[in-house]
Write a structure and sequence with these properties.
Blueprint: H1 2-10, H2 24-34, H3 36-58, E1 62-66, E2 69-71, H4 82-85, E3 88-100, H5 103-171, H6 177-212, H7 239-261, E4 265-276, E5 286-295, H8 303-370, H9 375-408
Antiparallel strand pairs: 1-3, 2-3, 3-4, 4-5
Helix pairs in contact: 2-5, 2-6, 3-5, 5-6, 5-7, 5-9, 7-8, 8-9
């Protein structure tokens, strides 16, 4: 029975029985590589880098080819006024224009793009953290199923070995037939429990592969995720709070963009080419010109004030969401921390109960071989131990899930 007692101590750590194993990091890596959402964010970030180049390019010299060709005939006195049309026009020009903007105006335009890129980047970080949380949660479920399945199988194997001993003792009339049947029913029940745990593990393991985008039906070992808690940031330095900071900067930047939109705009232009009315010395109508264009906003129906009012409303909304997040964050961390400590204490209590119940089972197993134990007492002791082991497994998994939830709020 020493082997049985050793099993009681080591079974929770699980025995390697599959041909290979994949750790939690493997599944997190696969999920990250296969996630279309993360790839989408990566492409948006790359596209955002091009947006800043587009802003700079829009304020550089713009060169265009322009051609306006017109013929307005006057037939028997009918037609457009020749004074206006000159009978026609033929032009082929190359025109260069440039809008003159201050460095601060350009900086405001670039900051708009930069803040959008920061917002996308922060959303990508949060999406990756969401993915990690969901994959880790499913890994814990599958890992718990595997531990339960192995425990049920080892228990079944032990009961089968004891069944052979009890059957021999029953044949020699040490035990009654009803005693053997009582034990055999327990054995049959354990077989069903093992089959149920096996099916549950395969289903949850398949779900893990599905979430990670892995096309593989082979079953592998899942090591203990061994999750640990790092130092948590306060609410104001978390990646979730960062989005509220970015939104605040966006509102400030939007005010600057609106203000620059109401400043005078000066553009310079120059062209060269052919421009002719086709009435006098057409062969000499090649030339060039240059000039300035000034646009001064005077009145727009109070649109600027209305735009500022919309920004004020957006800022109040942002502040309300921010304050609510801070309260939720602090409450969530406090609640999870309390659950963690309570579950840790419960796990220790269950371990103590397992120590006593495993000793009781060990003693009853020894007495079984000598025919000095009541089968009902053995079955009761065994069921007590099995219930305690399952309770330990459940609470250990709960502990891992709590740590996973706390880890979700940590910064990368």
């Amino acid at each position: 029975m020493k082997k049985f007692f050793l099993f009681l101590l080591l079974s929770f750590t699980s025995v390697r029985s599959f041909s290979q194993e994949h750790s939690l990091d493997f599944y997190l890596g696969q999920a990250k590589d296969n996630s279309p959402l993360l790839k989408d964010y990566q492409n948006q970030i790359q596209s955002g880098r091009l947006d800043s180049q587009l802003v700079r390019a829009s304020f550089k010299v713009q060169v265009n080819g322009i051609s306006n060709d017109l013929y307005a005939p006057v037939i028997k006195g009918y037609g457009y006024d020749n004074v206006i049309t000159n009978g026609g026009q033929l032009s082929a020009q190359v025109q260069a224009t440039k809008t003159l903007v201050s460095k601060s105006n350009l900086a405001a335009q670039l900051e708009t793009v930069g803040l959008d890129n920061k917002s996308i980047g922060n959303s990508a970080v949060i999406a990756e953290r969401d993915l990690k949380k969901s994959i880790t949660a499913q890994y814990i479920v599958a890992y718990g199923d595997m531990v339960a399945m192995k425990f049920e199988r080892e228990t079944l194997d032990l009961l089968k070995r004891e069944d052979a001993i009890l059957k021999a003792l029953t044949q020699t009339n040490v035990y009654r037939q009803t005693d053997y049947l009582t034990f055999y029913v327990t054995l049959q029940q354990q077989q069903l429990l093992f089959r149920q745990s096996e099916v549950q593990f395969k289903n949850d393991y398949a779900s893990l592969n599905y979430l990670c985008g892995i096309q593989d039906t082979a079953v592998v070992d899942l090591p203990d995720p061994a999750l640990k808690i790092s130092a948590l940031p306060d609410a104001y330095s978390s990646m979730f709070y960062r989005q509220y900071t970015i939104d605040s900067l966006k509102n400030i930047n939007q005010r600057s963009v609106i203000a620059y939109g109401y400043k005078p705009k000066l553009s310079v232009f120059a062209d060269a080419g052919y421009l002719s009315s086709m009435t006098y010395q057409m062969e000499k109508n090649f030339g060039t010109s240059a000039g300035l264009s000034l646009n001064v906003p005077i009145y727009d129906g109070r649109q600027r004030k209305l735009k500022y009012s919309k920004i004020d409303i957006a800022e109040r909304t942002r502040a309300a969401y921010r304050d609510f997040f801070v309260r939720q964050y602090n409450q969530q961390i406090a609640q999870l921390t309390q659950q963690l400590h309570s579950t840790e204490a419960l796990v220790e209590e269950i371990k103590g109960q397992i120590s006593y119940s495993s000793s009781l089972v060990d003693v009853n197993m020894k007495l079984l071989e000598t025919g000095n134990v009541h089968i009902t007492d053995l079955v009761l002791a065994l069921n007590t131990y099995l219930n305690a082991r399952n309770l330990l497994n459940q609470n250990y998994l709960t502990l891992l899930q709590i740590i996973n939830q706390i880890d979700y709020w940590e910064n990368f």
